[in-house]
UniProtKB/TrEMBL annotation:
This is Putative Peptidase, family M48. It comes from Nitrospira moscoviensis. Signal peptide: none annotated. InterPro entries: DUF7092, Mito/Outer_Membr_Metalloprot, Peptidase_M48. It comes from the Bacteria.
Amino acid sequence: MADGSHPGGPPQTWPASYYDGRSSARHPVTVTLSGSGLTIQREDGTPLSWRYDDVRQTQGEHAGEPIRLECGAPLQEALVIDDASFAPALRSFVEHRYRHFRFPLSVRRRIAQIGAAFMASIAAVAALVLWGIPALADLVTPWVPVSWEVSVGQAALGQMVPDNQRCTNERLRKRLDLLMVRLVDPSKTPYEFHLTVVDSQLFNAYALPGGNIVIFRPLLQATKTPEELAGVLAHEAQHVLLRHTTKSLLRDLSLAAMIGAAFGDVSGIGALAVQAAGTLSVLHYSRDMEEQADREGMRLLQKAHFNPAGMIRFFETLKGRHGHIDVPGYLSTHPQTEERIARLKAMLHHPSDTSAVEPDEEWQHTAALCRA
Ligand SMILES: [Zn+2]
């Protein structure tokens, strides 16, 4: 069957108005549809063919609206079809193949959508009344756009780590970037991870909403192999991927700021960043969140073929340090217990996974770099 021909009769045509882009004159035309495009029959008998690929739809997404299609550049020709039977016919030709066309939702879909929105608002109000802000924060977190998390995380990082405290060594940066990309495949997540190494005496590491991970030099230098650092990064990356940072931050925000976050509003980002920096610098995750980050972090390591024994070994190193350091940030926010290490060991699939990771001289040299 040739394109456009219909069994049992001539193809269906619709009356339409055509604008040639040169003047505002309206030309009455008729339109026929085919599998690859539409044909416009002008009054003088000359046909025009538009391929669906080249057509832009600028109107007709809402019920009762005429469909307006545009084509061509720089002269923009336009076609307006009022006939209500045109939309379902066009839809039957383009659906699933050309994703740039939009049609009004069916009545059933619209009712379902309104119903879902209604139930969500009831749930939100109930959560707020019954359990207060933390419960509402948990409910809102999945709706916060990644772009909001990135903006807030970036602004908070600016507050928390001044430029002159950041390690800028090119070789160090490249090595860490490679490690991070191997750990979290950027093509499989909406988050872009960035590591910032802080030149400071504190022993700490933390994650910010949206994909920034901050590591302090003493902690970086305490890792004897890339596998050990990968363990810390996998855990921190999971706090981002599982939105633990965002959830904890939202719990601390005002109701208005939380609603703003759900809508991706970044208008008050300056003030928000100051508050976020305050909240995130003393952040304590719940025990559940820590266990989840450990568990999912271990999965991340195994998927990226890092020896997970590195993660366990680093935690054992930390255990050894306990008592030598005055309240190091990483230990106070990430409780180190025998139980935690035992739980991680239980997750290893093969006994050989627990083999020690040999210290790596080159790694230790790179980890000590900071400025050019
Ligand atoms: Zn943690």
